[in-house]
Inverse folding.
């Protein structure tokens, strides 16, 4: 009977199975994540990632520690036997390790040719066929005794070669060169420290586990130099926990003759192009006005960014602004994440030195065991040789009388009671050396070998002696390869922190507000040569005043709102310009009008509001100050009655209030009490009859009269005095206001 074909649904049912997402991640994603963490991005205790280690070991095997330089392409090709990631990735790794690139405080590769620069984003390195490399002298410490089983070797990716799991570096390289890496779910960010200081700190910690690392490490040291700002608490946190951050900033000098600033060292985390781009953006936006030009003058002598400034520039203040607003000052975040026996661990500097010491002690033990085994083997051979000294003729006779070559060794073993290894050694001695003098000279080494083996044994089993060896090597490394600090340490207290106000250029300005709500800001310098203020036809000036570029400008509208604008945020303009249209600049409501403008730097003084119902409110200007940079405040004044007059009071003053253009009263604003809230309806200052209103308010100097004191009142509320006819005429007042019944 023929089998029925399975339907599509039945096939899918056999192949598609439900699986928990957590199980899928564990089975498929975790192996990848661990591979990136362990085999790519996070450095081991020797200070290297696998890509660095494979490259340097290949160069060591090529004899480039002492030989001449070779083409970089040759090194890249050879490295592919250990590193299958491709020539471009390998060469990029090589570039970073070179002296020419300048990315490392202690470069491992002696280079010739263009390898770009770490401090430049756009300076490309040459192709590998044009550059030459060899190992730097310090690599002799990286590979010391590697042939003596100091580290474990494993198969390469195709099993045809062996490569070291770690390199037996004789100094804590993990702290001497900067190391940045991003893995999956974790990252590593290790700053570099001065080699001499690291060696001193390592020696101190070896001799006294309770030693304070901060007593020996002044702070990070980077190949690009600059200045590191020392914050004792933050540095102590980094040394203790491996996490924290510190600030780096550029170094500069001022050429007074040419009126230019020369920046010659920058933070390790930035580059020339980023700095220049940011400065140009600040100049274009008007936030910095002292700079006239900036250019990159980097050459063979080193990095240099030149900034031309105006003659009257306060250079220190300008640089403090640039430190605050550009990458000339940047933060370096530390995350001392290191692989210890294949496990990622975030360690403090002291803990890293502890684990490095354990690693180094293990390497030295393996080296001692290797040397001792070699000497024991030699001692064993010479012991066999000493036995034939008693009867050389017998040895010769045994060899001569043995018919089969294969029986020479067994016969010697039987004749002198020695083992096979000793017999093989004796059988291989040349005929010319089978004499008493040669054998005696060789046997004289027995006592020396025995003593050396005993010393090696004692050292191998003594942690104290091994630690002494490490300290001795560290002292030698510091002497041979140590250099002075490149990054200067400056105290936090020496750094002037600019406030937001200090970062704003301070100069005198005059501001203008027109009835049609156009606004202008003109510097007082420009005002000297300014002509007539340009306005729209039928427009007129509503307010104008002098203030500074650091002031806050307050715009009061007819909708009981106040809009705030920082003067430095408004563009400087000229008298011949129309100015900014405030509804667009402030984002005002439809049909809303600005009716008054004032400016302040300290929010001292009061605002006076006089309303049609005869009430007046005096509000502290401080009521309009906000911690957040709010652009609009609602309920800036009371909306219960129509506003007739408002003014900012720097001090108490006399004002004249008119009722229906028939009565007037003169009062001092000191009579009006302060209100607790800015939208308070105020106090009654004028007693109004039914259907009468307060119609106009004059500053006392604008009311024309021969006897102003005639209208004065000493208390409020007041009924006022009838306006004399001559004063009505002098002030061009209309007849009594006609009110609707």
């Amino acid at each position: 009977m023929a089998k029925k074909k399975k339907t599509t649904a039945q096939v899918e049912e056999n192949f598609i199975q439900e699986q928990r997402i957590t199980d899928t991640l564990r089975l498929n994603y975790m192996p990848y994540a661990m591979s990136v963490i362990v085999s790519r991005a996070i450095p081991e205790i020797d200070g290297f990632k696998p890509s660095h280690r494979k490259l340097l070991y290949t160069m060591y095997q090529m004899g480039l520690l002492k030989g001449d330089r070779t083409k970089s392409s040759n090194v890249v090709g050879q490295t592919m036997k250990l590193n299958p990631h491709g020539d471009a990735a390998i060469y990029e790794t090589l570039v970073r390790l070179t002296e020419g690139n300048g990315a490392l405080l202690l470069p491992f590769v002696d280079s010739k040719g263009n390898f770009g620069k770490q401090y430049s984003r756009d300076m490309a390195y040459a192709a590998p066929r044009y550059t030459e490399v060899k190992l730097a002298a310090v690599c002799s410490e990286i590979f010391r005794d590697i042939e003596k089983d100091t580290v474990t070797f494993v198969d390469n990716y195709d099993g045809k070669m062996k490569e070291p799991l770690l390199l037996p570096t004789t100094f804590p390289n993990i702290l001497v060169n900067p190391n940045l890496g991003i893995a999956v779910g974790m990252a590593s960010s290790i700053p570099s420290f001065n080699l001499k200081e690291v060696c001193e700190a390592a020696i101190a910690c070896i001799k006294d586990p309770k030693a304070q690392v901060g007593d020996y490490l002044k702070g990070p040291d980077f190949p690009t130099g600059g200045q590191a700002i020392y914050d004792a608490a933050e540095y102590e946190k980094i040394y203790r926990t491996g996490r924290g951050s510190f600030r780096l900033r550029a170094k500069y000098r001022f050429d007074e003759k040419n009126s230019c600033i020369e920046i010659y060292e920058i933070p390790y985390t930035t580059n020339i192009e980023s700095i220049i781009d940011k400065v140009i953006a600040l100049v274009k936006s008007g936030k910095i006005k002292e700079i006239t030009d900036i250019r990159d003058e980097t050459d063979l002598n080193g990095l240099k960014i030149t900034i031309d400034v105006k003659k009257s520039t306060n250079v220190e203040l300008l640089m403090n602004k640039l430190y605050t607003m550009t990458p000339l000052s940047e933060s370096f975040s530390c995350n001392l994440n290191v692989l210890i026996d294949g496990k990622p661990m975030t360690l403090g500097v002291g803990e890293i030195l502890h684990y490095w010491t354990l690693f180094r002690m293990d390497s030295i033990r393996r080296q001692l065991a290797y040397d001792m085994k070699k000497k024991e083997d030699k001692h064993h051979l010479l012991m066999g040789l000493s036995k034939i000294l008693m009867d050389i003729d017998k040895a010769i006779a045994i060899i001569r009388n043995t018919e089969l070559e294969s029986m020479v060794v067994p016969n010697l073993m039987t004749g002198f009671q020695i083992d096979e290894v000793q017999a093989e050694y004796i059988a291989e001695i040349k005929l010319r050396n089978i004499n008493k003098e040669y054998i005696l000279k060789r046997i004289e080494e027995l006592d020396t070998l025995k003593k050396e083996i005993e010393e090696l044994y004692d050292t191998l089993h003594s942690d104290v002696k091994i630690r002494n060896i490490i300290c001795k090597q560290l002292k030698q490394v510091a002497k041979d390869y140590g250099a002075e600090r490149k990054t200067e340490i400056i105290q936090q207290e020496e750094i002037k922190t600019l406030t937001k106000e200090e970062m704003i250029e301070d100069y005198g300005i005059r501001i203008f507000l027109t009835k049609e709500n156009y606004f202008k800001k003109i510097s007082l310098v420009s005002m000297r040569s300014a002509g007539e203020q340009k306005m729209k036809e039928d427009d007129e000036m509503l307010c104008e005043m002098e203030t500074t570029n650091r002031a806050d400008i307050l715009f009061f509208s007819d909708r009981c709102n106040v809009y705030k604008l920082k003067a430095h945020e408004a563009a400087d303009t000229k008298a011949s310009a129309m100015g900014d249209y405030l509804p667009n600049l402030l984002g005002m409501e439809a049909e809303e009008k600005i009716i008054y403008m004032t400016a302040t730097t300290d929010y001292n003084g009061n605002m006076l509001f006089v309303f049609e119902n005869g009430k007046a409110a005096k509000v502290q200007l401080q009521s309009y100050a906000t911690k957040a940079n709010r652009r609009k405040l609602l309920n800036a004044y009371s909306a219960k009655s129509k506003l007739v007059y408002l003014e900012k009071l720097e001090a108490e003053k006399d004002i004249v209030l008119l009722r229906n253009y028939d009565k007037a009263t003169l009062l001092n604003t000191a009579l009006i009490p302060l209100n607790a809230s800015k939208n308070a309806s105020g106090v009654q200052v004028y007693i109004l009859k039914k259907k009468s209103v307060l119609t106009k308010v004059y500053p006392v100097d604008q009311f024309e009269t021969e006897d102003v004191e005639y209208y004065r009142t000493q208390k409020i509320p007041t009924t006022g005095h009838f306006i004399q006819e001559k004063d009505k005429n002098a002030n061009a007042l209309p007849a009594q206001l006609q009110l609707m019944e």
